[in-house]
Predict the 3D structure of the following.
Amino acid sequence: DQQVKQNSPSLSVQEGRISILNCDYTNSMFDYFLWYKKYPAEGPTFLISISSIKDKNEDGRFTVFLNKSAKHLSLHIVPSQPGDSAVYFCAAHNYQLIWGAGTKLIIKP
Amino acid sequence: NAGVTQTPKFQVLKTGQSMTLQCAQDMNHNSMYWYRQDPGMGLRLIYYSASEGTTDKGEVPNGYNVSRLNKREFSLRLESAAPSQTSVYFCASSAGTGVETQYFGPGTRLLVL
């Protein structure tokens, strides 16, 4: 039973446009949500996070939105750049991190 | 400042063989973790160590043992490898076990034949 789901295995976006990555969760006890980015042959690196008491957090080109009633969060990247091509993992915290399966983002020039 | 290092980068084992995956961090972090990543799945926690001298089971601990050798080092041992343990293994560390950022090593790709 996957508590954190990323239903899109991959996403292709034109350079300069907005990338929107989605994540759904089932456990209402999650208190913190994080996005990590992973390049091939490297470990994941932290990107941005949001507390369950907020609905938006912004850091430069990256914004995370949280909709608790829908148990849904999304990561927006504006504008998308070629270096953003990577696998993006959503993770949720409740005593430990529970990870989604990841979405591979491809930015087309 | 190397962050989190893992050895080896790649290993092939035969069923029943044993091996130890090594992990070290130089960030003076209290907490360390071992994850496995399988195709189509998120990272799954095998074991973690909240602080030096303590270890606890994660989501998928069966078939593994760990040792927190000191504050810097956290090793993962497979006593009798099975094909189901073919995976990519990541070590991570963080200042604490709450929502602090976890810093990951580059991973060890393990193939069990």
